[in-house]
Amino acid sequence: MSLFRLSLVILFAESFGYKILIYSPQIGHSHVNFFGQIADTLVEAGHDAVLYVPAFYEEVKTTGAKLARVIERPLENKLPYDVSDVLPGTWTEDGRGLVQVFTVMIGMAGNIKPHCDMQLADKKLMDRLREEKFDLGITEVFNVCGYAIFHNLGIRTHISAFATNIVDVISSGLGVVNNPSYVPASFTQLSDVMSYSQRLENVISYSTTFFLFQLLVRPYINFNHVAPGFDIDKAVESSAFAFVNSEEFVEYPRPINHKIVFIAGIGVKQPQPLDEEYERIMENAKGSVVLVSFGSVAKSSEMPSKIKDAFVGMFARFPEVTFIWKYEKDDDVAANVTNVIKKKWVPQNDLFGHPKLGAFITHGGQNSVIESTNAGIPMICVPLFGDQMRNAKVAEKRRVAFLLDKRFISSDSLSHAIRTVLYNQTYGESAKRLAQMIRKKPISARERVIKYTEFAAEFGPFDNLNSAGVRLNFFQYYMIDILLPAAIILMLFTALSALALIRLTRLLLRFRMENKQKQE
């Protein structure tokens, strides 16, 4: 964007736009980028979007924004849980277990509380933000500190957001129904079409996750001592809307309500021309090019030797394919395989725009799946942890991904996946068709962010979209208070009817016997 155009945008924002505070702690690159993209989109629309970015994990240094005003806050005290302590062994442990999931959730919640306490107790910071007189706030649902800050600042209208897909354990506060008979739990690798045993697994997973969240995580997210009168349940329920970083044409169809607004792809940029080095790599490739990248957290260089050997063995079996491998160290791995190019960083989105890129080997992170589906590139997914399992499964259902289990990675399984995705036209055709559907949606993600934010700022706070179901208890919500008495009445009626029938039968038999005796 030119300096002149940027100046016009800022001038317009100061004159006519809304003032919007976006809370974006540095808990992960994908989360920070998601909220930074929302902020930049609103600035381009003429609003004064301020991105408040408190430091959280040392590994995350970026703010995710290029246009929005940014207020950063350093972390003065180290948080109790280090990211390396709470994340399971990326390559060695089964990331699907509830124990691993809750280790992360408790670690995150255990960090959020002291992190939030420090911010709310920072009078200078709170006064600075309060002087801005914001019209609206936007915060992630899971990181509940944003709601407490909005409460302290007197921001009466806010929008919730998921940097992932809809997370079931916290979406119920928005009135979203999570029916485990066909809505897979957030941390499972199940489809929406399940067998009896899979539905049982899904019910157990959802119920366990929900109750453990209430028991173990909820105690960490009470901020009444620093934000008097704050109620997290009311804060979530009173959200004007909820932005979801998920693509409705990829995601499983499921019950939602009028608050849910899908905005996946908000930050997907048009691929730019490759630099000279990468352009030469692509043009010199004999056949297809395959990108191998496992994101910013899972590093290929930290793979166990067995998995590295499996990848190197697979690379050697396809000399006609060029593999660009995001690999973070200088070592001798794959040094003798001439069709492998190791890079510590890759221009992923720009590579997606090149016609020679034939497939993408990925961990199935939300942003990677979104970028790949927007570009029409088929995937080979090796999910490692958390929602990556679900992301990979739904991509498999759309026939745009081949799913592999990291526990059973071998040269044979990888070779079969490459052969299937590259040489079976189904995957490429499905990926291109899905990308066209996303591209031609009636209302783009960018338009949704702008229009729903402006609507909330103009008319909020409002309760028109609040679901009455949020305030029902378990027995009322599932109509147990109606069905149980009805079942008891039905059983009593059945029992009484059976008893009456038995007595009537006995009476008739006795009458018949007496008549027979009289006749004799």
From TrEMBL:
InterPro entries: UDP-glycosyltransferase, UDP_glucos_trans. Keywords: Glycosyltransferase, Membrane, Signal, Transferase, Transmembrane, Transmembrane helix. CDD domains: GT1_Gtf-like (cd03784). One of its GO terms (molecular function) is glucuronosyltransferase activity. It is an enzyme of class 2 (transferase). Residues 1-17 form the signal peptide. SUPFAM superfamilies: UDP-Glycosyltransferase/glycogen phosphorylase (SSF53756). This is glucuronosyltransferase. It comes from Parascaris univalens (Nematode worm).
